[in-house]
Structures are given as C-alpha cells and as structure tokens.
User: What shape does this take?
Amino acid sequence: MIPALPYAHALVAKQDLPIPAWLFAWAASIVLVVSFFALSAAWRKPRFEEERWRPSAAWLTTVLRSPPIQVLCGGLAVFLLGVAIYAGIHGTEAPDRNFAITFFFVTVWIGFAFVSALVGNVFPAFNPWRAIARVAGGAHRLLAGRPPRHLAYPERLGRWPAAAGLLGFVWLEVVYGSSGGVAVGLEPHAAGVAACVYTAYTLAMMALFGCETWCARGEVFSVYFGMFSQLAPFGVEDGRIGRRRPLAAATHWVAGASGSTAVVIASIATTSFDGAADGAYKGALESVERWFADAGVGPLATIRIADTIFMAGTVAGVAAVYLLGVKGMRSVPGAPPFRQLARGFAHSLIPIALAYLVAHYFSLFVYQEQAQFTYLLSDPLGTSTTDLFGTAEHGIDFNALSPNAIWYVQVAALLVGHVFGLTLAHDKALVYWRDYRRASRSQYWMLAVMVAFTCFGLYLLSVGAS
Amino acid sequence: MLGAVAIPLAHLGHFLWIFYVIPVLIVVAGIIRSTRAEKKREREEESKKRQ
Assistant: This one.
C-alpha cells in the first residue's frame, strides 16, 4: 500500500486520479519497453524510407491551389496580421483581453502545429509574409519585365536561422513576458511591436534570398509548422496534393538541411521549459532570482536573467540526452560516424515535439479558442467599446474539460508520440545496420532516451497540475 | 524520545521526482547489463573461432 504523499505547497490537487500520477510514468515506460521488443521481433525491414506518395483526385489540387483560393487565404492572413498588430499596439494592455496575444501565441502557434500534423502543410497558403512577398515579386515582374534577382542562400546556414528564431519567439513569450500571471503574460504592445519587427526582417530576408528559399530555411513559422506537417498523411509533390504513408516524410526532412536537428531539439526544450517554469523549476528559479536580487539586479531583470539561464539549460539538457542516445548507438559495430547518426535520427524526435506540444497546450488551446472566437473577435482591442459579432460578453467555459480528461489526453499524447518516435528510430536503424539484430541493439539507447523524455514530460505535467 | 522526532512528511512532495527517475534507471541498468552480456558473448564467439 503506497500512501498518498502530502504536497507542502499545493492548495488543492486539480486531478482526482485513481492511481498516483507517477504510476502513469511507470506504465508508460513498460509500454515503451514492450513496444521496443515488439519492433525488434516483428519490424525487420525499413518501411519509412519511401513515402509511397499517391496523387489525390486532380480536382482537389485544382481547387485548393487555384489563384482565387490562394488570394483569399493570403489576403485573410495579411488582414488578420494587420488586425493583430493594430490591436497589440492600440488595444488594451490586459493580455487576456487583447486579440493579439491569443491570436499569435495560441491560435497561430499551437493551432497551425496541430492542423499541420493532421492534414499537412497548410501554412504556406496562410503565410502573410509569403503573400506580401509574392505580390511584391509579381509587381516587380510586371514593372521590370523580369523576376527579382536574389542572392544564393548559404547552404551551410541550413535551418539554423529558424532554430534561432524559434528560441527567440519562445523567449519573447515565456521569458520576456513572464510577469503577467496569465496564460501568456507578454504585453500586447510588445507583441505588436515584435510582429512589426519580424515582418520587416522576414520581408528583407525574402527580398535577399527569395520567398520560397527563406520559407524553407529561415522563416520560423514556415519551418516549425513544416516540421510537424512531415508527420501528416497528406503532402504536395510537383505541385499536386496526394496521400502518403503517415510519418514517412519526416525521415528525409532532417537530412535535407543542417540545423534541422536544432529546430527539433529547440521545439521540445522550449515547450518543456514553458511547462517547468511554473512547476518543476519554480524552487530552483526562485533561488537563482534571489541570488541575482542580492547582487543588486533589478526585479524584472532578475526574473528574465534567471528564466533565460534555465531556458538555455533546458535546451542543453534535451540536446545532451539525445546526443547521449546517439553516443550509445556508436558503440554498436558497423555504426556510421557520430554526426551522421545525430542528424539521421533527429526526425524520431518530431513526434515527441508534437506530443509535448499537445500535452502542454491542449487545454490552453481549448480554453483560449473559446475566447478567440467569441469576445476577442467581437472586441479585438479589448476596450469594451465594440461588439462586432454580438459575442463580446461571452466567456470561457472552464468546465469544457475535466482535469482528469486533460490528464488522460496528456498521458496518451506523450505515450503515442514516444511510441511513434521509437518506431521511426527503429526503422532508421534498419537502414544503417542491415542486420536487424544489430539494428535493435543500437536502439537500446534510443529506448532510454524515449523513456527519459516520457518520464520527464509526465513529471513536468504532474508538478504543473499540483 | 522517539515520540519527539517529527518526520517531515509535508515535504515528501519535493522528492516525488525520484519516482519518475526510477523507470529510467531500470531501463539504463537493463541496457548496460545486456550490452555487457552481448559483448562478452561476441568475445567468446571470436575466441572460439580463433581456436
């Protein structure tokens, strides 16, 4: 009989689970170990090296990629970006009442990631900067009689600009805006200004290197959503929409450009840090903050410096766990060089990045989208002076999800994500080690990585829920 | 005197992370054990081949 442990600092436990939360971590670990042995026994040939892409009905491509639809989607995206920037700069400073914050950090950031993983890469159609750049490119072609000339993109940069931008975006949301005490505490004015700066930067880069090149390599949102879309069962080839084997496209996404591993690791680490900042790291963060405060640093700078250190530490920690797994693989005879392995297996972390995203933000998304499509849409500035759709007085129904339902979704997401990750890694091992016994042996350490990420994720969630 | 010793149960919550580390340690221990066993078996097979 294991007694329920008392929490010294918990006012009330949100969940009413039939077993302690940590037992879920044990159960998840057992599922992963069983999955590992099942894969070793039954999965003896690589199956994800080919996407098995099959074209869908021609009319689907004709309709979805037709100029009117593209103009409509692009125009809507530019309009909404404009509304969000205007609301951010001229609206209320209350983050939860301003359209901009929920739009940028919940509807777009989380919503497009979910949709991309389910149905494929839809973001290019709704990318406002791409839409502006394409119009500008068309105008240039019309006036100059030739397409605009661009610099050759330095291939060694790969997706590193996107990885850096991803860290910057999350830093802005989680660290710079960490004083609000609401879901996203960033001041709307700062979000509006940041969106203007990012717009100028993105358009400049698109002018330099070309719109599609920058979207594939450096534009944070395109790369981030594009990464998740590799898991989807739909994709575009030679301009035509088609079906493909789910997860299979991820195999070649990471190998396609340097810095892709950094993008995947940054995705997991930033989500982990966001979850840990108010839970698992709280005590340690307060200690570091006290140290800086004692050294005479101002209160806000203290919080930001401590958060930045912990965020960087989380990125380093996630990278170290992954690279340790890769190092373990190197001990198996016939292993390729370390760098090749590190890049070759990074795609197996994409389902984990998605699992972390679902686990940490699923409930936030369900709650905040109620706000987005009711009072934030009717009163974007949050000044209580407009009621465009008659929904300005609506609120969020916090009973839409029970705490237990949230917990079960979180556990299921983490478990499924890690089993998918394990499957992708096992499949890749069969490519590098033709002998399935050696391939399975090489995956011992990836199993440890997956178990570690699962337990870490569940720990963060359980502490956050207490 | 035993009755005066207060067990700080209220702070046990701070050590809950141990329960989340145990599965990782078990898996890592299993991996190290099986890796060693496999290497030993490979060495033995090689020495048999030489003989």
In short: The mean pLDDT of chain A is 89. The first strand of chain A starts at residue 54 and ends at 55. The CA atoms of residues 195 and 352 of chain A lie 28 Å apart. Residues 299-330 of chain A form the longest helix (32 residues).
